[in-house]
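Researcher: Here's the sequence for the chain we discussed earlier.
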Amino acid sequence: MEANKFSWDYAQLERILRAYGDTRPVESVIAQYEYEREMARRLLQASREERQALYKEVYNNLYQNFPEHPGLTNRHSPQRKQKIRRLVEHIQPFLSPESVFVEIGSGDCLLAYEVAPMVKRVYALEVSSEKVAPQPPEVRNFTLVLFDGFEIPLDNSSVTVAFSDQVLEHLHPEDALEHLREVYRTLTQGGYYICRVPHRFTGPHDISKYFTEQASGLHIKEYTYYELAVLFRKAGFSRLNALIKGRCVPARWMGALERLLAPLPHRVRKRVAERLRVFRTVALVGQK
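Model: Thanks. This is the structure I predict for it:
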């Protein structure tokens, strides 16, 4: 179903929404999609200097104007809590009581709060405070840092483990490499960046999944393992692994599998990728 600003098949769209388990009114979803599509256009056309202010504006307005956004309404859902538990289980092997942990694009900060008892210090980096959940009183080694999405306000070689989940796809492609270089700068020698993004083969994963075959909302670019690994290497990371069900495997293995699927027609490739169950997310671990 191709999106058209002036003509909507409401009945078809409602069937699509309900098939995904989305219970929001059709009108709300259309309004959010049109907002995201327009903001994505602005971000893609903006200069680097303009984007420094625009990221914060875009996401503040998104969460203020669309209170039914799943990122707000699902914060305390059983599914969200289960996801956090699973992510913490995957992160924990990289942590120690002396670790300095940074979550980039921390959103509600619930994951950062869960990690806090396991490490020496936690920093949560965000461009917007609209989603941040109240800090539990027992968490005293946590700092929320609001930043412009570009320059990470932390010292060189000060971070043991950096983590992001569903962040890089929101950045302008030109900003993604700069982001990785900033993370690399802050990591200690031997430190890790665990980066999770939606996989392009099973996308789109943003609101445009209801309307188009390619991401056209605020997922500015969805990646494959190969594409993300190229950026990591350009940023300086020499050792790259894919994190599959909590286990590290060489990232090149996933790239080889992607090359087999890439020539397939979009719908066939998506169906096969979904059945393989390893292409829902790109989970890449880069070591400095």
